[in-house]
Amino acid sequence: MTAFAPDWLYLREPADAAARATELLDPLRSFLPAGEDIVVRDLGCGTGSLGRWLAARLPGTQHWILHDHDTALLAHAQESLPGTALDGSPVDVVAERRDITALRAADLAGTSLVTASALLDLLTRDEVTALATAVVEAGCAALLMLSVTGKVELSPTDPLDPALAAAFNAHQRRITDGRRLLGPNAVDVAAAAFGRLGAQVVRADSAWRLGPDQAELQRQWLEGWVGAAVEQLPELRPVAGVYLQRRLELAAAGELHAVIHHGDLLVLPPNREAAA
Fewer CB atoms < 10 Å away: N or C end of the chain? Predict the structure, then answer.
């Protein structure tokens, strides 16, 4: 799995929080059993930003189990989740370092909700299919947020925008360590995988909308976006440096606006009564 610097994760957290599709929360709350404790497993939790956002928006006593491969991130995430739920009920947290791509239905026994943020695009088709199978067989819900979809809108526009975007998207679909990542195809692949298993799937857009007040996030995102594009297509290098400088100057001057699209998925178990 790809590792991300904690500083980047902290920097993006406000943009993530503003982008998350809040319209998915009401159907999720309706599904979760009222008056019962819920168990939430957060896959690839990073610094715990999704837990910090979600725990206080769900009612009832919550038991969070955080999964990540980075022990330092796990330790911070465990300490930083809110202690109370939406209705004042207690929230407790444990951390488990494990390979989230190896989770199966038996591992999710007793789980009410599986969550993940900015994860699906880092998985392969087989890994997403295995995750969907585990979630549906375990009978739990899933809230899978902020997967890149490949669409970027920059204002003002630049003639090189399409070439950089195409190269970046190809980089997101690259083969690494023998694994073909889904990148911008992840939301479609995941929705189809859950749908084939009979689950109810609700999709929503969750775009970052970065304005002049987020110049530092714009800068770091631009550097990563252009850098990945050049890594994928080295022939872009002669023009990419000038392009990046042009974009960074606009960001520093407060004149750049960026919309970076992501997709959120809410997955609810198949309606067993209807199926019968």
Answer: C
49: which residues sit within 8 A by CB, 6+ positions away?
9, 13, 16, 17, 117
Specify the pairing of strand 208-210 against strand 257-268: antiparallel
pLDDT at 1 over 90: no
Summarised one tens digit per residue, pLDDT across range 208-257 is 999 999 999 999 999 999 999 999 999 999 999 999 999 999 999 999 99
Bridge partner residues of 10 (DSSP) = none
Any bridge partners for residue 62, and if so which? 38, 91
pTM, whole model, 2 decimals? 0.95
CA atoms in the 13 A half-sphere facing the CB of 138: 25
Residue 113 lies in a domain: yes
* 229 lies in some domain: yes
Is 238 a domain residue?
yes
Compute how many other C-beta atoms are within 10 angstroms of the C-beta atom of residue 253: 10
Q: Evaluate whether residue 35 is within a structural domain.
A: yes
Alpha-helical (H) ranges within 101-236 are 125-138, 161-172, 186-196, 215-232
- pLDDT for the residue 275: 36
Give the C-alpha separation, 265 to 147, whole Å: 9
HSE toward the beta carbon, residue 116, CA cutoff 13 A: 27
Here the CATH number for the domain that contains residue 219 is 3.40.50.150
Number of domains present in the structure of the chain: 1
Tell me the backbone φ, ψ of residue 36, rounded to 5 degrees: -115, 150
Please tell me whether the peptide bond between 156 and the residue prior to it is cis, using omega within 30 degrees of 0. yes
Give tens-digit pLDDT for 75-106. Answer: 999 999 999 999 999 999 999 999 999 999 99
Dig out the tokens for 65 from the structure: 């189990």
Nearest to 16 by CA among 148, 110, 153: 148
> What is the β-pairing status of strands 208-210 and 62-68?
unpaired
pLDDT given for residue 2 in this prediction:
61
